[in-house]
Write a structure and sequence with these properties.
Blueprint: H1 2-23, H2 29-46, E1 51-57, E2 64-71, E3 80-82, H3 86-94, E4 98-100, E5 120-128, E6 131-140, H4 149-156, H5 159-193, H6 200-214, H7 219-231, H8 241-244, H9 252-258, H10 261-270, H11 278-283, H12 305-319, H13 331-340, H14 348-359
Length: about 375
């Protein structure tokens, strides 16, 4: 009978390990969040536990751990513990696995608060190399289930892979922060040369994401819109100051140069691998539904969908902003202009959704 149970446990372990190894190669934070939850669920299942959580060391001050994934769902609620606070805090400081066969009777931790309904716990540090990443908690509530050393041995085979997943997530978050800082620097460089558009790129980015959400676009597209909104005018870095900062209207020759900024922007962005896909959105954001736009004269659905979204948001934000050659339109005036350009400059369906879901619901106003 014991051999049958051992074979069953081995099969479960092999299945779980293969799953984690496969998932740990996935790249996005969203995927990793799903993976961590799935791993926790399976650990709870193979140990016949009833609840658990993965707590991750906070990056900012290294003094707190926070629940990243918790099961059941209501166990999360953004629980944050100081190091040495609670059982998880003790394990984080001491880097020592802990089994509590009965949390209410274990004298070693009588002064450390624990959740009353928990009967038995396994608490393990999650370590990558020499670096503490967090703590894994596995709990039971029923009286008849008590954890033992076999359970810890089982879970210990999973923790190193779990650590790799978390470390990959932390690295990706750092890269995301770095990319955002670079993004802000690029936008600052654009706005330093054209003070009349200060804050324009940030607002276009915000409006584009709002319109994307109104269209129920996937998270990946919302990220592309956010970045494209920030960088849509980056090609203006190559436009001469005499044109970019001219107080009056541009001549036709000057407009010819200005109209090249989407091409220059796309060329610059195409060389940055982290911004893959942004270049195409930026290149076509000044195309028109009727084919009279630039730089390539695309029309209708030839224009990439995200470029059409960006184009509406860019135009609307420009309308309600002061320019050297005109004062800002009011929001009702800008709405009237959008309606007038439906099916001409703008995708008619997107205009209606932008007006109804972004402007009329007052989302547009901060």
């Amino acid at each position: 009978m014991k051999r049958i149970r051992d074979r069953e446990e081995l099969a479960r372990m092999e299945n779980l390990t293969n799953l984690i190894e496969k998932f740990s190669r996935l790249e996005t934070l969203q995927e990793r969040g799903i993976i961590l939850r799935d791993v926790l669920e399976r650990i709870i299942s193979i140990t016949k536990a009833e609840a658990g959580s993965i707590m991750v060391l906070e990056d900012d001050d290294k003094l707190h751990i926070e629940i990243s994934v918790g099961l059941p769902e209501d166990i999360k609620d953004k629980v944050i513990l100081g190091l040495n606070e609670g059982l998880a805090g003790w394990v984080a400081v001491n880097r020592t696995p802990l089994i509590l066969e009965d949390t209410s009777k274990d004298q070693r931790f009588k002064n450390i608060p624990s959740t009353p309904e928990i009967k038995s716990s396994i608490v393990l540090p999650i370590i990558h190399g020499e670096k503490l990443l967090g703590v894994l908690n596995i709990n039971t509530i029923r009286e008849y289930r008590r954890f033992n050393k076999d359970d810890i041995e089982l879970i210990n085979k999973i923790v190193p892979i779990l650590a790799n997943i978390i470390e990959g997530e932390k690295l990706e978050r750092k890269i995301e922060v770095l990319n955002r800082e670079i993004l802000i620097s690029l936008v600052s460089a654009i706005e330093a040369r054209d003070p009349y558009t200060k804050g324009h790129s940030e607002e276009v980015s915000r409006l584009s994401v709002l319109l994307g959400k109104a269209l129920s676009l996937p998270v990946e597209d919302l990220k592309l819109l956010e970045i494209a909104g920030y960088l849509h005018d980056i090609g203006k870095l190559k436009v001469p100051d005499s044109i970019l900062q001219k107080p009056g209207r541009l001549t036709e020759e000057e407009w010819e140069i200005m109209r090249r900024h989407p091409i220059w922007g796309a060329e610059m962005l195409s060389k940055i691998s982290a911004l893959k896909g942004i270049d195409r959105i930026v290149r076509y954001h000044h195309e028109r539904w009727d084919g009279k736009g630039y730089p390539d004269g695309l029309s209708g659905e030839e224009i990439p969908f995200l470029s059409r979204i960006l184009g509406i948001c860019d135009s609307f934000q420009a309308m309600i902003s002061d320019r050297p050659y005109r004062v800002a339109l009011t929001i009702p005036q800008a709405i009237e202009e959008l309606q007038k350009e439906k099916g001409k400059q703008f995708d008619p369906d997107l205009v209606d959704i932008f007006i109804n879901s972004v402007i009329n619901e007052r989302i547009v106003l901060k």
